[in-house]
What does this fold into?
Amino acid sequence: MAHQAHSYHMVDPSPWPIFGAAAALLTTSGLIMWFHYNTSTLLMAGLLSMLLVMLQWWRDVIRESTFQGHHTPTVQKGLRYGMILFITSEVFFFLGFFWAFFHSSLAPTPELGGQWPPTGINPLNPLDVPLLNTAILLASGVTVTWAHHSITEGNRKQAIHALTLTIALGLYFTALQAMEYHETSFSIADSIYGSTFFVATGFHGLHVIIGSSFLTVCLLRLIKFHFTSNHHFGFEAAAWYWHFVDIVWLFLYMSMYWWGS
Amino acid sequence: MVCLCTASGAVISGGALGGASRWFRRESGSGGESHFDGNCDAMAEDIRTKLEHYKTAPFDSRFPNQNQTRNCWQNYLDFHRCEKAMAAKGADATPCQWYYRVYKSICPMSWVTTWDEYREEGTFPGKI
It folds into this structure.
């Protein structure tokens, strides 16, 4: 039977899933070795293998879709569901850290001096760099939407400009946030304040980096003519992820930076 | 708060020292409330009576739930703030004993010891 009688994609056998699982095992056990025994070999092996699996797996998805045409509208629908479900799971991930923050900050214990911010903590001024970072991410939300419209309208030059600007704004945010981390008078070890602040903003920063990387891949694909004005789900998925990252920042800003100071 | 006296009497001023007191009069000496009627000597007698009849910490509607940590903490703070304020004014610190009795009743001894040590060292995290 030469052709399929359905619109789904029956994927060819691939080693990446099992290698990805192995990479996850190496990474998690590597984290344990790093935390408890101060050796990072296993962790480095885990992260490296994770990176290689991601590159090769997603390269294969691009080959199957852009070059071999397996991504019918039905397949795309499934991918949309998948991305939405993934982002939903990430929302719950962050919800946990917000829960932890509110648990500790709404009823500060005597050890903290019964107040929030705790005694001795000098929080960052929310109207300083954090406000700039908010503006940067909001602007990047605008530019990514501009890029999307440019793609839909077939305007190649504007699409490239808008997406490049989005990525630049993302990198600017990351650089500023890194500088802020350097400048704080408190560290992650400074009471539950430090823990909640750096774990929540830290994971957010990681997601900004992930989002920026995803957008960069989209930019490269855009330049190489992978997208059509009707079919560019990779870009849409990246744009959704980017908006999610922006919204998480807004909540972080309002609760930890502003209310929490 | 009411009644700012310079003579020795129940001088309680400032928001933090409102404590467990009620604004209305109560008949029985349940040890729960003191009242402010603008008359310092009456108040002074009153607080002494309250202290004499003290049995244990009364219900404080600011802390209605099972976890009474904040109750202990607040009274510990209020006692030391009261002492500090009275000393600054050169007034009688007897009314402060109310907070002392309450925190002694409800705070775990180890907490009080630890907090006293922190105050000694200057590392007490609360605002006194």
